[in-house]
Amino acid sequence: MEQLLREKSAAIVEKLYGQKISPDEILVNIPPKDFPFDFTIVIFPIAKLARKSPEQAAKEIGNELRIQFEEIVEAEPVKGFLNIKLSDGYWIRFLTSAMQDPTFGNLPSTGKKMMIEYSGPNTNKPLHFGHLRNIFIGYSVSEILKAAGNEVVKVNIYNDRGIHICKSMLAYRKFGDHETPQSSGMKGDHLVGKYYVKYDTELKNEIGALILQGAAEDEAKKEAPLSVEIKEMLVKWEDGDPEVRTLWNTLNGWVYDGFEETYDRLGVDFDKAYYESQNYQRGKFFVQEGLGKGIFFKKEDGSVWVDLTKEGLDEKLLLRADGTSVYITQDIGIAEARYDDFHPDIMIYTIASEQDYHMKVLKLICKKLGEPYADGMYHLSYGMVDLPSGRMKSREGRVVDADEMIDEMEATAAEHTNDLGKIEDFSPAEQQDLYHILGLGALKFFILKVDPRKKMLFNPEESIDFHGFTGPFIQYTYARIKSVMRKAESAQVFTKAEIREKASALQPQERSLILQLQRFPSIIREAAAGYDPAVLANYIYHLARAYNHFYQELPILNAEESATRDLRLRLSSFVASVIKKGMKLLGIEVPERM
RNA sequence: GGCCCCGUAGCUCAACUGAAUAGAGUAUCUGACUACGAAUCAGAAGGUUCCAGGUUUGAAUCCUGGCGGGGUCACCA
Question: Which nucleotide is nearest to A82 (CA to C1')?
């Protein structure tokens, strides 16, 4: 509709003023809510072109639009804005056709393949709240991209090697006493995480003891027995020492089992997992190749670097003097591996904003290497989650644990639901299912409603609300609509003839509601283009709100108004499907009853 | 210190491409369940959009300079 208005207006401008203007340059807005109009054409730019006053131009264009376009029943110029009202017939047709279109809200196929990486955990500790933000954003964006007509490949990356992984291994070997997830009753990732923290506390003790004996602080850090042992262990791992490798496999196996369980509960999945341990060698190969081509250079000590000073950045190390790889080396290898596997047009990396610089460098290096995928690399950068006390620190155990968080949310959902007592006829399994949908809905929405680029503050003391602008509120609206529909459908009191007869009596609330619905496809498009689930979350919220307002205004049990009721039902079912679809884009389920 | 991001109601957050009176929730106050679901709704109050300039018919939004907060500049990952 907006597009049609733009085209008509452009044609009119040319006819009236002899000035060419492209339809895209014409701005069509939704008017502020107190104006009883459907669209607003912003006249200022046109007035400039036409060399007329905005008021004059608005008046002339409005008159012409009304003559040419029979759906327009009013065109009122206000200052530089031309407000347009469309006929009830148009809106009824729109609603009807949108309802009959099962693909409403989806965009046609773009023929593009997009790969998205998210989660990307270290295999030495359980997932925490920061990971949740990553996972929810990544999963939601992949759903949005799908709806926007793209083929999507979801991948994970396990940071499964390196000194930080050895820390939990070493602590386990020294203090673990053959403890297993089975023997301890702990989830595998939590068990390993326990030893990761253990390493840090034991190391601190050793350092403290050395300092008491008179050692300097940095000296103590180097000479502490654990510091020495950890280096030995890393070397042994690199050399493929069987004992160390077995330990590594065992602990990582426990962690993977634990992660799998959590991903399952979160309702997210991956098409393929990549492992740092399997790709860091590959990265070295490409660095050597780049060195051969003269893209990189070698320093006297034998270390390999890339010069990015022309691009306004620094020199960056790619291989150490001893030939071992660094963080970015393996990323080069992994990017290559992914391209070989899937040949995506776009590769999206869901990684926190602290790695903005790193990702910039990675892209530049791939570009220098002449890789075909370099231009399609996109860093979906999100802000970090802070606690009131500052950043989360896993090593110090100052984190909000993901599994505990889910447990708490489900418990809260159970509490609320039982207080209200609406689902007493549910089986225990159905109840559990509902608590899960509600708890997770609250958690996901709480996180996704914040602009991903901004950092967010989470206060564990204040539990996540189920009232107001929340996931459960929207889920509630959906469940309520469904309930209304069930009752109204069983009543069977309207006919199609009645609808036609009385449908012209659209109320203002209905109009404003339909208007919001009208925006849906363009919102998805914007969200997909800007990778911005927050926009969507906001939209669904307003939709749900509009419905509630509407709902309150029109009691449908008045037997004389069956036509209004039918329209209500159509609206209801339409709103319900839009909410369901929108929530799916956020990765949130909606219950039929709650 | 260089570079990047952020600064909006007491608090947590919105505001699509620059557009009309900057919106929600929460907290506070007032009102609404014998009618389809009150996890709800209606209303009140709450703002120098960090500051100062600039561009524009029009700026929370764009530009410049400050101030404040965070991130990053590792032969850590």
Answer: B20
